[in-house]
Amino acid sequence: MASITNLASSLSSLSFSSQVSQRPNTISFPRANSVFALPAESARRASLSITATVSAPPEEEEIVELKKYVKSRLPGGFAAQKIIGTGRRKCAIARVVLQEGTGKVIINYRDAKEYLQGNPLWLQYVKVPLVTLGYENSYDIFMKAHGGGLSGQAQAITLGVARALLKVSADHRSPLKKEGLLTRDARVVERKKAGLKKARKAPQFSKR
């Protein structure tokens, strides 16, 4: 009994700066003011707005410029032009437009050398019909190609350029035909057969 009175007296001697909430068994202490109190204006939440301009890569800028150039040279698009030819090879299709110029070649709004990865054989395919007639520096070529690979697209462009040159003059048929540039190459990969590894390759024979 004496210990309980001693404990009660010790608790009464302590001074708490607390407020007992209405909830049972919970004590909430008032928050003391900070010594380093900030002014009212700076205490407000400042809204930070950041504007960043991301510059496009140089390749994309070049494509945009070439698009503008092609649209200025071909008003109304490819279909509205007069000297146009369509070439096909494997799964590739190329639409070709010829215009008098200095020999510039643009494929899918990109320079031909960049688009064909600098491959000399593919670049030669593009210019073979013009070189045959001696027009390599007389016409600008604008092309849209899709489907297949770059090799198929380059050969499709060859046929497209040759067909477009026929619309320039009917006299071009004889030299182009002589070089075989007006013939559509119908060769495609032969399909695989059941029971074979490829189109014709059979598995190794085993007697037992």
UniProtKB/TrEMBL annotation:
Keywords linked to the UniProt accession: Ribonucleoprotein, Ribosomal protein
Annotated coiled-coil segments of the chain: none
GO cellular component terms, A-Z: cytoplasm; small ribosomal subunit
One Pfam family in the UniProt entry: Ribosomal_S9
Stored InterPro entries: Ribosomal_Su5_D2-typ_SF (IPR020568), Ribosomal_uS9 (IPR000754), Ribosomal_uS9_bac/plastid (IPR023035), Ribosomal_uS9_CS (IPR020574), Ribsml_uS5_D2-typ_fold_subgr (IPR014721)
Biological process, per Gene Ontology: translation
Top-level taxonomic group: Eukaryota
Molecular-function GO terms, alphabetical: structural constituent of ribosome
PANTHER family membership: RIBOSOMAL PROTEIN S9 (PTHR21569), SMALL RIBOSOMAL SUBUNIT PROTEIN US9M (PTHR21569:SF1)
Protein family (similarity comment): Belongs to the universal ribosomal protein uS9 family.
NCBIfam families from the UniProt entry: PRK00132.1
Stated name of the protein: Small ribosomal subunit protein uS9c
Native source organism of the sequence: Arabidopsis thaliana (Mouse-ear cress)
Lineage: Eukaryota, Viridiplantae, Streptophyta, Embryophyta, Tracheophyta
